[in-house]
Structure formats: C-alpha cells, structure tokens
C-alpha cells in the first residue's frame, strides 16, 4: 500500500496532480481543497489512498491525514465510491464533513452532487459514531460552542421571548444552516416564534 508520496510537483490541475519521485511520475486524484492547499513550491508531500478495482488501480492524494481519514470513512459506506467521496471533499472541507455527519445535517450532505436522501442518511448512520470517536468530537461541541447562538438567544430574550423556547428554535435553525450569522438566526427565529 502506498501511504504517502513526497516529490516534485510536475503537473497541477483542480482534479489531479502528477508528482515526480526519482524519475517516476505518480498521477494522484485530488479534491479541490487539496488543490487549494498545495504549496506554490515544487516539492510536495501528499498522503495517499490506493483504490483497487477490477478495472483500475487509482491513487488519491490528500494534503493532510485528516482529509485522508474522512475519505476512507466515506468510501466505507455502501453507495459511496471514491469519486463521490472526492466530490464531497471538494464541496466541503474535511472538518465540515465531520461536523455535518456529527450534527446529522442530512440537507448539507445531500447537497453534494451524486448523494441522495437515502445515501445521506446512510452516511450519517454508518459514520456518526466513528466520526465522534476517531476525531474526538463531543456531541456538545458539534452543536458548537456557538457564540452566534448565544448572542441570538440574548437578543431574543431582550425582545421578550422565553429562553427555553428560543433555544429550541435556534438549535433547529443551526441544524439546517450551521454557519448562520447572528442576524440570520434572529430573523429566522422570529418567524418561528
């Protein structure tokens, strides 16, 4: 198993790179996140995963071990192949994928091209425990020590809404759009209170 490649970057494209290791060129399929994080200099080190199928041996390259681990977890799910996993890691960062799975954000996972509702739910069911264990996430930290949430709750309290009721509404809003700003949280909460 090839686990990492260190060498001279010969060719760089958004979907693949060619790395020259002592005269031998390796073609590595990469995500857009890896593409964006590749250094400008010629020498690179990429962590790899070798996918062996009946008709092809394909190398996938990752800028860090976390992205590779998330990729491996994703392809362990029935219905998620290497190309869908790579698309997912191109649409979101490895950390975003972890958060989406840990917080059971089906809509976010389903927003990835090639993933339907059933596959998104399967990804969550199969990987939630593994993600929480492997990356040492707390379910509490997943709902984030969200300062936006706290600010929105304070504002709603000032407006006269009960904190308990506001908390439920804002938690539901954060499940749908985890990166919502304070203003968005307040506006959406006011519609639901």
Automatic annotation (TrEMBL):
What domain of life? Bacteria
GO MF entry, a single one: four-way junction helicase activity
Q: Which SUPFAM superfamilies match?
A: DNA helicase RuvA subunit, C-terminal domain, Nucleic acid-binding proteins, RuvA domain 2-like
- Residue ranges constituting the Helix-hairpin-helix DNA-binding motif class domain according to the UniProt record: 72-91, 107-126
A biological process term (GO) from this entry = DNA recombination
Q: Could you tell me which Pfam families the record lists for this protein?
A: HHH_5 (PF14520), RuvA_C (PF07499), RuvA_N (PF01330)
The terms describing its cellular component in GO are:
cytoplasm; Holliday junction helicase complex; Holliday junction resolvase complex
Q: Where in the cell is it found?
A: Cytoplasm
Q: Which SMART domains match?
A: HhH1 (SM00278)
HAMAP family membership: DNA_HJ_migration_RuvA (MF_00031)
The record's subunit annotation is: Homotetramer. Forms an RuvA(8)-RuvB(12)-Holliday junction (HJ) complex. HJ DNA is sandwiched between 2 RuvA tetramers; dsDNA enters through RuvA and exits via RuvB. An RuvB hexamer assembles on each DNA strand where it exits the tetramer. Each RuvB hexamer is contacted by two RuvA subunits (via domain III) on 2 adjacent RuvB subunits; this complex drives branch migration. In the full resolvosome a probable DNA-RuvA(4)-RuvB(12)-RuvC(2) complex forms which resolves the HJ.
Q: What is known of its domains?
A: Has three domains with a flexible linker between the domains II and III and assumes an 'L' shape. Domain III is highly mobile and contacts RuvB.
> What is the name listed in the Swiss-Prot or TrEMBL entry for this protein?
Holliday junction branch migration complex subunit RuvA
State the organism of origin.
Tenacibaculum skagerrakense
């Amino acid at each position: 198993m090839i686990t990492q490649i260190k060498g001279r970057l010969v060719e760089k494209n958004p979907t693949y790179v060619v790395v020259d290791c002592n005269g031998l060129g390796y073609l590595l399929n990469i995500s857009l996140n890896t593409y964006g994080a590749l250094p400008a200099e010629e020498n690179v080190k990429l962590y790899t995963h070798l996918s062996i199928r009946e008709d092809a041996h394909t190398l996938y390259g990752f800028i860090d071990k976390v992205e590779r681990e998330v990729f491996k977890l994703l392809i362990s799910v029935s219905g998620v192949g290497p190309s869908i996993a790579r698309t997912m890691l191109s649409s979101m960062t490895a950390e975003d994928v972890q958060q989406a799975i840990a917080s059971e954000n089906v809509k976010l996972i389903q927003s990835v091209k090639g993933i339907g509702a059933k596959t998104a739910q399967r990804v969550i069911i199969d990987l939630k425990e593994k993600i929480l264990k492997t990356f040492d996430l707390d379910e509490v930290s997943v709902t984030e020590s969200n300062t936006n949430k706290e600010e929105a709750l304070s504002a709603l309290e000032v407006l006269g809404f009960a904190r308990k009721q506001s908390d439920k509404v804002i938690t539901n809003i954060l499940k749908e759009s985890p990166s919502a700003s304070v203003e968005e949280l307040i506006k959406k909460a006011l519609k639901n209170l």
